[in-house]
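quick one before i forget lol
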Amino acid sequence: MKKAKERIGPILKRLGAAYPEARCSLDHKNPLELLVATILSAQCTDARVNIVTKVLFKKYKPAHDYAVANPAVFEEEISSTRFLRNKTRSVLGMANALVDRHGGKVPDTMEELVKLPGVGRKTANVVLGNAFGKNEGVVVDTHVARISALLKLTKQKDPVKIERDLMKIVPREEWTMFPHLMIHHGRAVCIANRPKCAECVISELCPSSSV
C-alpha cells in the first residue's frame, strides 16, 4: 500500500467525484449564523440543528439580539439540541463578546475566534473555512477521525493530534473540503461497524478494506 501522501490525491479525486454535492450541512446565510449553528451542533445531528435554527434565525439577527436574550427562553428555543444550559451559556456569552470586542461582527482569524466563549479550534475551523473561505485547519469530527484511521492517514486518537497529521498530508487548499467528503462518505458508505467496502470508490486505496 502506498504511503499516505501518495494516496491522498487519488482519494480526494475519487471522493470529490462521488460526492459533488459535498458542503457544510449546517444551514446558514452569514458567519454569525454558522457560528451559532456550529455551537448548537455539539452532540446533536446537523439535521436537528437545521430544524431549530430555521425558527431561531428568524428571531435573532445581529449578535446584539443573542446578547440580550433571556437565557430561560433561549434554552426552551433550542430544547431539542441537548446540553441546553451549556449551549445557551456559550451562544449568549459568545454574542456578548462579539458586541463588546468586535462591534458585533464575527472575527475572521483563529486567534480571535478561539477567545470567544464556547468556541474551540474545531468550531473556528468550521467558520473560517465555510464562512470566510480560509483554510486554517482541518475539522476533525467522529467521521473524519474514524475514516482517517481506517485509511491509515493517522495513528492518533486525540482530535488535535489527528488534525496535525492531516494538515501535513492533505493539500492546504483542500482542508475545508476534506472533512465534508469524509462526512458524506461516512454517512453513505463507510458506516461505522458496517462499512460497504464492496461499494467504496476508494477501497483499493484503503489499507482497512475488506475487499
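fyi The radius of gyration is 18 Å.
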